[in-house]
Amino acid sequence: RSSGWAFLLQMSALLGILGVLLMHLFIPDVAAWWMTTMTQYMTQLESNMGVKIDAARIQHFMQAYVLVATGFQIMLYSLTAILEVFLGRAVASALFEPGQLANEVKSIRLSWVASVVLLAFVVLTKVGPPLFLDAFPVVVLPFVLAGISLVHGVLAAYQAPKWTYWIFYLVLIALVFFAQALLGILIVGAIIDSVFNVRVRCEKAAA
């Protein structure tokens, strides 16, 4: 069933890319549309809530955010859907297959084709049209989740104590809030795993 999770993650990315593509087809300048929409929202928030907003700081943030806003929103929807499936599977596993979900979670391995697509997107975000930068968040999400699975798999292979998992998630939360760029470690790990199957090598080394 771990392949089923990989399929789910990869399909979420594919559908996310399609969603970003449709947005760019129907709206000629997506970044300008987001800028207008967010400016109106900030104005309403300032008026209705009596909140004083630092316009210069918000403007700087919005100029960067609008370039990936569509992809980021779709990525959040995808993540929500994946978590809902995960919770449903957790209930089913607890009732009918105790322990099965843990085996699935530590075994999610993406296809090498997905890694090629990600690397192509990395290049195209620099030289291609804005669509590729906008879609980048939905392409990255499966690799972050697969990277988390890889950490579970490696820790399980070496029979690490449970407190190491807690430390990992505390570090992960810290990275999400304070050093998002370091999440690239998970992404790189997932790419390497898609080619070399790191879990099997760790299991052999730990045996």
Structural class: mainly alpha
Strand fraction: under 5%
Q: What's the helical proportion of residues?
A: over 70%
- What would the average pLDDT be, to the nearest integer? 89
Largest sheet: none
Structure description:
It is a single chain. The chain has 207 residues and is mainly alpha-helical. It contains 10 helices and no strands. The protein has helices at 2-26, 30-49, 55-65, 69-96, 100-105, 112-127, 130-157, 162-178, 184-196, 198-206. Helix 1 packs antiparallel against helix 4 (69-96), helix 4 packs parallel to helix 7 and helix 7 (130-157) packs across helix 9 (184-196). The longest helix is centred in the middle third of the chain and has 28 residues, at 69-96. The radius of gyration is 20 Å and the shape is globular. The protein starts with a helix and ends with a helix. The model has no long low-confidence stretch (mean pLDDT 89).
In short:
27% of the residues are buried.
Name the descriptors.
207 residues; 10 helices
SSE inventory with pairings:
Elements: H1 2-26, H2 30-49, H3 55-65, H4 69-96, H5 100-105, H6 112-127, H7 130-157, H8 162-178, H9 184-196, H10 198-206
